[in-house]
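Following up on my earlier thread - several people asked me to post the actual chain instead of describing it. Fair enough. Here it is, all 174 residues.
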Amino acid sequence: AHNTVEVGEVDQTEVWGSFRAGRLAVPTVHAVQDDGEVLVVEASHDGYRYLDGAPTHRRRFEMGNGRIVLRDSVAGSGFHRMFGRLFLAPGIRAELNDDGEGPDVIAPPFAHLGTMWNGEPVPAGIVFASVAQAFGPRTACHSVWWEIWDDLPQDFVTEITLGDPIAPEGSGTA
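Reply from S.P.:
Thanks for posting it. Predicted structure:
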């Protein structure tokens, strides 16, 4: 499991056991740019080429000006399940928030974490998960996820706004 968009209920690389893999996804880096304010990295892989419609996943990562934006495109054809996930660092507690603009996630130090699809918020979920911070041991964490079943191609935008979440009413801070 990775911080990615999974297509067709399979990983982009066939994995079994600890650090054992077959049918490797071939990555392609399309852009790396840093203008001093925003870092942009764009890459794709062909790890789903064997599925019907030969889906490809492309991600554009933009970081700067107090936010992180993930622009995901899944090209190809056919009806597929797309499952996005984002593992949060151990110690960052996430909770669902519905502020009237659609469900999103509040996870300090982030003020907002939400995914849009066709201009609408994608309902998110939070599950307990674990991450490997070193070889062997695993550490508990939260994982934010979303799921869509639809025809390809599809585009998703996940935005993480950095900073303090909105303070509770009566706290004297905003």
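Residues 165-174 have pLDDT under 50 and may be disordered. That should answer part of your original question.
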